Amino acid sequence: MNIDRPPRLAQLWLLFVTTLLAAPIVWMVLSSLKSPEQIAAAPYSWWPRPWRWGNYAEAVQAIPFLRYLGNSVVLCLGSVAGTLFSCSLVAYGFSRLRWPGRDLVFGLLIATMLLPWQVTMIPRFLVIRELGLYDSLWALVLPKFFGEAFYIFLLRQFFLTVPQEMIDAARVDGCSELGVLWRVMLPLARPALATVALLETIAAWNDYGGPLLYLNDPKRFPLAYGLEQFVSAHSSETHLLLAAAVLFTLPMVLLFFFAQRAFVRGVTTTGIKG
Amino acid sequence: MQRRELQLGIAMIGPWLIGFFVLTLYPFCASFYWSFCDYDLLSEPRWVGLSNYRRLASELASGGPFSRALANTAYYALTSVGLSVVLGIALAVSLTWQVRGRALYRMLCFLPTVVPTVAAAVLWMGLLDPQQGLVNGVLESVGLSSQGWFQSTSAAAWPPAWPGDHAGRILGSKDGLVLMSLWGIGNLLVIYLAALADVPKGLYEAAELDGAGRLRQFRHITLPMLTPVIFFNVVMGLIQSVQAFTQIYLVSDGQGDPAGSTLTLSLHLFLTAFKDLDMGYASAMAWVLFVLVMLITTWLFRTSRHWVI
Amino acid sequence: MTTRKLLTSAILLATLFVLMAIDAADTPQTSNAREEIVFWHFWGGRDRPIVEKIVEQFNASQRQYTVRAIAMPGSNLDLKFFLSVAGGDPPDLLNHDDPIVADWAHRGVLTPLDELATADELKRLDAWLFPAARQLGTYDERLYALCNGLDIRALYCNTTLLAEHGLGLPETTGDLDVIAETIAPSGDAAGRRRMGYLPDPRRLWAWGVVFGGRFANPQARGLAERRSTRRRLLQRSLGWPTTVVVMGLASSRHSVRENKHLRGRRFRCSPTAGTRWSWTGNGACATLPKPSRLTSLQPFLFQLRPAEKNAGWVNGNFFVVPSRARHKQGAWQFMKFWTGFDGHEAEAAAACAAGGWIPASQQVVDQQAYQQALERWPLLKTFVRLASSPDQIPVPSLPVASLYYHEVVQAAQEVLYRGADPATTLQQAAARVRQRLQEVLDEH
């Protein structure tokens, strides 16, 4: 006898709730295959009649889709590379090294998480400009090489669970600190690294504000921002908009299915702080 | 020896430290300085003392855009966080039930969170279209009145602003945004589920022996055990909803439409800075936002002693 | 283990390499003999191919310059522009249609056209442009923008329908209410169907002027004079539409292009995104989104002095050159080519005809290609006739014009959506604009 034994009508309730949550996605996919006339037609019908696969071809042709996709991929890869590099290094410095003032500085790092991005937005823009990175993907990627408080925190928590003996053994074998990080910590932390990589991929794929501020030339637009161009040009063509949105969402859904466990772990780790 | 350790430590955290000074601390100080300046980005900042803050105060007093932005932000943050706590717990508990297809249910609840913000905005603008949207269609088919959503200024939490409005039309643009945020509740569910899994089973068994029913078990065991996560949910939720930008920017035509009903602090600040080129005023606003967030967080941490286990 | 490590590092390196390669590939090659003019616009949908064709034609006609057109999303064109100026990489040429000329010129981010054009060209241009087009580009008695197309509005009425109900043409905004109430009394069919006109805050400007509203002080160019004059100007009440009215059946160039909407016996309208409205066909009845709120708008409407004929609020598309643009002469050549000034009238007429646009000059209108378009879309004639009227009035050319425009739209939204009191709302908005103007003038 347990609290998790289902009450009566449990199935019905769960079915109802999950239908509510999933319906928008189903709606999006089905509508993206309808003709504009059917979308506007008065009695609503779920099923596309006829199935207009051509919507997708049209949506892809309406914007330089491949170019934007390429930019998005580069952005994601660059961001992940930068994040993994900087965050693992910094997390190691905060977890397995003892140095005076460490905990104080770590507190500072945690405090930056509470700082609203709006506060630093404007001067940050000017710093990026001074670095000559305005209107370049580097403007979005370079900051990732300086670490991100949340990921550092997450990796640090993981590094702390590694037994001290393993580190000591490596040090006795003549490993430098970088060697310890590279040979001992990182291989062990692979699940945590995967989580960070995943979260960062999603963040970079999603980022709209960054390109809005820093990118000037459509040649460099990632999909998230390029889609907005599409929205303003085709605001009345719901079917095409939704087709573009489906294409934009698809990679994330695929990622979700392939890396479901890392996903869930990533989100749960978020809860540690609470 | 200590010196070497310090050097090594600093070297390791070096990347973050550089980033902190260049991309956080300097901007942090600069925006504080600029909040006392008149600055349009194109010419040099000019010291104007407290005038930006005075302007904020006077807008607050006269009900100008700033006070509206504050009210909108409060509405959005409180409604979405409040509902996310209630729905998050309710759903998470439901998802612990041992029913057939539980894994599938969990997955379906999580799926919406992977839909990117831009796509979600497009999706919900379609769904909530007052004329052709599915949501209004469903509402009407079950005998409820359809709602104005992103084309209406009304808000559910207080009575419609003016008497001419027709009965039953209470949900407006901000409620649409709240709905959007609740749709992505999956992230939260995973955290609640993890916390629920950590509750010792023995507690429930003991309670059962004492004859406690399902509700009393929930009230006296589950809920107290969840308080740390609830606290986390509230703190992070408030911070995130105060900072929310992309979805609001997208559904409001980039300007807080209709009638400033979606003009949140975040959006107002952005537009003041980059559309009106009033960097000084925007910086002052950013600092007010910062102080507010700090105050609320501190207050939450203080009161948490009384209810978080 | 080693293979995996090797693989990881290889992937990381490859990523960085690709990133750098992409960036390097994008920097303009210097070997090209022609100067590249970066041109920003926000045309999308059906207009996009026409824009592309004009650019192609220009590039084919040129040896010295080549134009690269970049379509920016319309809703953040201003933002992008300012950021590019601040970022040090502005476009060479920009096409816009909001009242930003005065603001931007005042900030010093625009090149006055007299720096690009010869004195002779300027003189001819002055006569060449419609008065409205001239006003749109002028600030402080200098030309900063070259208008390439006007947006004209007219009030259209279904006279058959009016006659059926024994109604005459509306002369005041109050008449519009009477018409709505007579043809489709409120309260039928659950109060959802209404024949009438659409209150649309964005068109407020248009209807204010059509029904005789005027800016209290249209001669805002006095700002050019000495400081004391500015003061005096400020002391008089700042320009403001003397009243706010609810819009009637607005019609711009777009609806003309699909003139089926006007041909129908009655109109059906439906809202699209946000607060935008569009004609969607000629259904049986006008459908307002929800129960009509017209009753609560009554205090919003009041009698105005009779409107002058051919009056209207005008805006339009225009070219501006940022002050930090690199290829200003090329930009000037291209805008001349597009607007048709100085011998390109025939091409310009063809482009305008293709887009259903209203040219900025009578000389373009007179071209054969455009005359054919007028035959094809007879309704367009009305708009073209209105375009030449001196009573077409733009937003006053003040350094706070954007704010002014925005405040009026906001005020209308306040009244329409929230039921605010029109007089108070307008007064507050006017106070804010006046204060801002004061600040702006004090700074310089």
Task: Please give a structural write-up.
The complex is a heterotrimer of chains A (274), B (309) and C (444). Helix content of chain A is 71%, strand content 0%. Chain A has 274 residues and is mostly helical. Chain A has two domains: 47 residues, no CATH class; 171 residues, MetI-like fold, CATH 1.10.3720.10. The radius of gyration of chain A is 23 Å and the shape is globular. In chain A, 48% of the residues are buried. Chain B is mainly alpha-helical and 309 residues long. Chain B has a single domain, classed as Orthogonal Bundle (MetI-like fold), CATH 1.10.3720. Chain B has 14 helices and two strands, in the order ααββαααααααααααα. A two-stranded antiparallel ribbon of chain B has the order 1-2. The longest helix of chain B has 32 residues. Chain C is α/β, with parallel strands linked by helices and 444 residues long. Chain C has two domains: 198 residues, 3-Layer(aba) Sandwich (D-Maltodextrin-Binding Protein, domain 2); 198 residues, D-Maltodextrin-Binding Protein, domain 2, CATH 3.40.190. In chain C, α14 packs parallel to α16, α16 packs across α17 and α18 runs antiparallel to α19. About 24% of the residues of chain C have low confidence. Classes of the chains: A mainly alpha (274), B mainly alpha (309), C alpha/beta (444).
